[in-house]
Amino acid sequence: MSVTTLLRPVVVWSTSERGVGAQALEMLKLAARIGAPRLVVFGPRDLSLAFEGFVAPVGTEIIHVPNDDWLPQSFPLSATSIIEGLVREESASAVLIDGTIAGRELAARLSARLDSGLILDVLDLDADGRATVSNFGGNYYTRCRVIRGIPVLVIHRGISVDDDSMEFIAVAQVSERHVDPVFPAFVEDVSLNDPRANSRPNLEEARVVVAGGRGVGSIEGFALVESLADALHGAVGASRAAVDAGYYPARFQVGQTGVSVSPDVYIALGISGAIQHRAGMQSSRIVVSVNIDENAPIFDFSDFGVVGDLFEVAPQLRCRILQLRGVDDTGTARDDASSVG
Amino acid sequence: MNIAVCIKQVPDTYSTRHLNTNGRVQRDGVELVVDEIDLRAVELAIQIAENLDDSVLTAVCMGPERARDALIDCLGLGMHRGVHICDDRLAGADLNVTSKVLSAALSRENYDLIICGNESTDGRGGCVSTLIAEFMNLPIVTCAEHVTARESDFVITRALEEYRSTVVATVPLVLSVTDKVAEPRFPSFRGIRAARTRPIEILSLDDLFSNASFPAEYSEVLDFSAAPARSRGAVLPSNGRGGVLIADFLDNSRLLF
Q1: pTM here?
Q2: What is the rounded CA–CA span in Å between residue B221 and residue A130?
């Protein structure tokens, strides 16, 4: 047996929640293409319960690093030292990291310290370690390969990996490692939770995104976008025009400057469809748009379009969805009111 | 304070962008601009310097000869000098090489503060600033949304996915900024005229590395393909039934989860 067959890819996952997370499983599937994955999970102490019965590609081994005592900002530095140690001591064929802000910082640090090539925004990986990445928000797909060190791969958020020929089994091996956190050189003052971000699915990972543009017209108008998103269990997005006008916070901006999304359904309300916006959503499976202007460019790349007033169409759409699902409208409306606040 | 801002010349995001036959960003026949996020970084540097007696503001750019225009734009806004890393051997440089080269250029001088955009609009990596911090062994604060300079330190609000956090940091420091950090100013006529007299230092790989130590590529592009174009589907007038039409379309396509 050659030595290389013993090398395993390492998947890094960080979570503040109880579960392991859908993205972690998709990353494990990618990793399983090149070897039996080792999943390193940074999360709360009681997370270990979530591993019971966790089904993953055959051969997956889990290392749990409890991080209850860490500052949120300790993750990139601490994880860097742990993963660097793991790679050096036990060798690894690749490192796969979730494309969060902290994940990208971790990836860059590892890439520098391991003198290894870094590839970002990975959508797919083949058995020979060739990565597929998207360029310009999905205008192009490029296949590339690391040619120095081991691949350090930042995985696009919200990927869905084909697993037809893959075998899954409940993970048998879970070990725990306790590590002292590395604190960043700067002093952390305070961190604020933003409940608004947590009440809906993550924009990058949502299967449905409802986005509002300049046509929404006001901050108050976005309540309509939010209630439609909630009826569809989706995330809320905004065009750059809407963000620039101050209707919605910048971190929900979909577009070339902002977040790139590829949900199953993208509903554009009052968005004209500038190239800037298109670059952030054109890899969506189905695009539905509502615009008062029949010449809006967004119709040219929509699978279904309605020319009309979004203030009439959106509430009607929401009503009809609830009807089709057999949900009591008034009950849901009450929930909405509490989440809009 | 000695402040460097790393800038990048990119195709305008309001135009359609393409890859050329080498799988690199198509720059010929395309309008090239200073990446918008970098203009915000430049603005932040200028604002910080406005409250200090003695500052030198340097714009640093790696790119082909044309990238000089980007540096001149930044000088027109108020940067004092430019550093242009220009070498044909850097065409198509990957992330790791780019960061090594920028670090080598930045290490030639003692900058207190190095500011980068959090991610470029053509590469979307968001990793160059951290790589620079690693290579130069400097602390970094990423995704700065708001920066206040105090007597001897900076108060910085970071915008992360699920929360904001405020940190206090001292120089030397690398800072990556988001598009909320500052509104870029428009260049003044006086500024544009002054830009002509401000120096741009040109550096080649030979100035930065000894002969044998040019950084080799860390990754290679194997092939690329254009994504299939989206086509126009049915576009119907609402006539008071638009919501029902869409709901039925989604339902028939089994897209109501």
Answers
A1: 0.82
A2: 10
